[in-house]
Design a protein that fits this description.
A hairpin with a 4-residue loop joins strand 13 and strand 14. The termini are far apart. Helix content is 35%, strand content 31%. The protein contains 14 helices and 23 strands. Bound molecules: flavin-adenine dinucleotide (FAD). Flavin-adenine dinucleotide (FAD) binds next to helix 3, strand 5, strand 6, strand 15 and helix 10.
Length: 458
């Protein structure tokens, strides 16, 4: 049976598209909630999947988009969705995933609000776990130990600091929402090179295909090719740490409280995931993390239970176990001409205090805002303004996470004393504790407000 795509009109891809037009179109699915269609186009041996909308057919033919997003992790998908919702045509370019992402992400209230504005939170909310409290416990056996610190969301008038959600759920929701805009063309491939000019950028994929755009969003992760070929460069450093991640069931309720044990090798964070279910991020020396990951499941369950002093009763692991080596990186510039860097293409640090993707969301939020302010004609000149506005937030976040991590790892007594004194201050001084909590929920909001007022919009 021959299927005909209802959105395909010969002239749309043939006459106006010129020589570069795809030569074959195979609609796979039609009549699925009109005007939805899903069809595959073959061009120079490469397959494109077009979802919904003739505009996309035309754009694929011309190989030219308003925006190219390199990378389809959490940051890239959020950027593609945000810009597509403004009506921009977006090419989302990424290779097929090599392993599933078994992590969960604790999202603070400001991130949840933004995902709500993008229309994606509703589908995620059902499987998300409320974070009503955060507890920090000094689990070192050092001479000078910090007191336990308890943060309660009600103290700053909130029901929750945020929510914890599985990365797979979040990724699926973002991808579905981006596809539903009808403005995103998902292209399976890797960016290998790029040229940047006053009118925009041309991305060159590893098979030689070229795609033009006015704005290129680098969301291609910590080893970003776009960052490298733009000449931006980066400052990189290592930590002697690897994170072990898994999900588990337990006997007692977590009472919606996330508990972070601070050990001499890094944090051991237990974050609510469901009713009597939690996710674990156990940061340890790399050889210890790999040894733990290789343990038979019953032994690993015992080790997890012992590490948290049976706080939640018996532990039953309900997921696969993954390890994530930790490192640090900041790009020397966050934007340049028609290029902006978001997520781990711009900044990488250890998972302490759940800061990474929350910071990535704020990157995307600013790209979204600037793209709205400048309009299509201004997209190719956004880079420098984006860079200036991201410097304080990324700088402050990277420095504070790095400092906290190093004070844990440090065997130097004065450093341990300073850390203990700071945590004593947070337990004893109410206004300071509340300021810290507000900063956690909407990080950098005061500073960003100030920057917005000081820096020109165009
Ligand atoms: C153990 C752990 C726990 C964490 N927990 C939290 C948390 O609770 N809260 C929080 O906010 N953050 C957390 N983070 C941080 C968060 O996971 C990251 O900030 C986030 O996943 C980064 O997403 P990204 O899209 O920037 O990068 P990635 O997820 O690395 O995505 C990069 C994308 O680029 C693609 N790509 C690579 N090369 C190319 C190329 N050449 N061309 C095109 N595409 C390319 C990849 O295939 C991928 O799709 C945690 C991190 C770790 C390690």
């Amino acid at each position: 049976m021959t299927l005909v795509c209802p959105l395909y009109k010969p002239n749309a891809m043939g006459a106006d598209a010129g020589d570069g037009a795809p030569k074959r179109r195979i609609p796979l699915l039609i009549g699925f909630g009109q005007p939805y269609c899903l069809c595959v186009t073959t061009h120079r041996g490469r397959k494109y999947m077009h979802e919904s909308g003739e505009q996309i057919h035309r754009q694929a033919a011309a190989q030219s988009f308003d925006v190219c997003v390199a990378g389809a992790g959490l940051a890239g998908l959020t950027a593609a969705l945000a810009l597509a919702r403004q009506g921009y045509t977006v090419a989302a370019i990424a290779p097929a995933a090599t392993r599933p992402d078994l992590r969960t992400t604790a999202l603070f209230a400001a991130s949840v609000d933004y995902l709500g504005n993008l229309g994606v939170w509703e589908s995620v909310a059902q499987g998300a776990a409320r974070l009503a409290g955060i507890r920090l416990i000094d689990a070192t056996d050092r001479l000078f130990r910090a007191p336990q610190v308890d943060f309660d969301a009600t103290e700053i008038g909130l029901d929750a600091f945020g929510y914890n959600v599985s990365n797979q759920t979040l990724t699926t929701a973002l991808r579905d929402a981006a596809a539903a805009t009808g403005n995103v063309n998902f292209i399976e491939g890797s960016v290998a090179d790029a040229r940047f000019g006053a009118q925009g950028a041309t991305l060159v994929l590893s098979d030689g295909m070229e795609i033009d755009c006015r704005l290129a969003v680098a969301a291609d992760g910590r080893n970003s090719v776009l960052r490298a070929v733009s000449g931006i460069g980066e400052h990189k450093w290592k930590y002697p740490q690897t994170a072990l991640v898994l999900d588990f069931e337990h006997d007692f309720s977590h009472n919606d409280v996330s508990t972070e044990f601070h050990t001499p090798a890094g944090p051991f964070a237990v974050v609510p995931l469901g009713e009597r279910q939690s996710s674990l991020v156990w940061v340890a020396r790399p050889e210890r993390a790999e040894a733990l990951a290789a343990l038979p499941v019953e032994e690993l369950e015992r080790a997890v239970e012992q590490r948290m002093q049976s706080m939640l009763g018996k532990v039953r692991i309900i997921s696969k176990v993954q390890t994530w080596p930790l490192s640090g990186m900041t790009a020397r510039q966050y934007g340049k001409g028609p290029l902006v860097l978001v997520g781990e293409a711009a900044h990488v640090f250890p998972p302490i205090g759940a800061q990474g993707f929350n910071l990535g969301i704020r990157d995307v939020e600013l790209v979204d805002k600037l793209a709205r302010e400048t309009g299509r004609d201004g997209l190719a000149k956004m880079g420098e303004r984006y860079h200036l506005r991201r410097v304080p937030d990324i700088g402050a976040r990277t420095a504070s996470v790095d400092l906290l991590n190093r004070t844990l790892l440090s065997a130097f007594l004065p450093v341990q004393i300073a850390r203990g004194v700071a945590l004593h201050a947070f337990t004893g001084i109410g206004p300071l504790r509340r300021m810290l909590m507000r900063e956690g929920v909407a990080p950098g909001s005061q500073l960003r407000h100030l920057m917005d007022r000081m820096l020109p919009a165009r």
